[in-house]
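tokens incoming
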């Protein structure tokens, strides 16, 4: 596997985010413009980013829509304002896989990661309710993008999924 996943321990991490409910086919149109909006909010609030921006998949229902938070980890707990809401990523064991490639290849990389974990008997921190997967922490962390890497085939993303504790 090209991803070479590893299990890592992560501490609790405050963050701020904008939540959207979006059909799968509209993710690439609706969510990317929210990253600069959240980053601008963080700067205006006097906070500092404590890591890369991310998409946090809260609810996955491939038949209808996904609930996704576009967020930024911050250096301390924050109050929300308008569309931007605070949250805390839970501490615990996560599987981390570094992906380099076009964003269109992330779905296949995620499938590889899910298979890798299943082959090792690892369980995700996810529950199923009425056909929907509800994840505690399933992140795509965006390490670069169009502002600093024009070649989309060189974009770097961390897939960071929380394991059942």
């Amino acid at each position: 596997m090209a991803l070479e996943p590893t299990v890592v321990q992560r501490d609790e991490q405050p963050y701020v985010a904008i939540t959207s409910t979006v059909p799968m086919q509209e993710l690439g149109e609706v969510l990317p413009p929210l990253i600069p909006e959240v980053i601008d909010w963080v700067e205006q609030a006097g906070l500092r980013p404590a890591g890369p921006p991310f998409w946090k998949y809260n609810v996955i229902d491939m038949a209808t829509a996904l609930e996704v938070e576009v967020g930024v980890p911050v250096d301390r707990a924050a109050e929300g304002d308008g569309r931007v809401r605070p949250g805390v990523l839970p501490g615990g064991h996560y599987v981390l896989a570094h992906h380099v490639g076009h964003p269109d290849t992330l779905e296949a990389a995620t499938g590889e990661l899910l298979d890798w974990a299943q082959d090792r008997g690892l369980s995700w921190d996810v529950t199923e309710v009425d056909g929907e997967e509800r994840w505690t922490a399933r992140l795509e962390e965006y390490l670069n993008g169009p502002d600093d890497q024009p070649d989309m085939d060189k974009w770097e993303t961390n897939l960071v999924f929380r394991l059942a504790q």
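note: The first strand starts at residue 6 and ends at 10.
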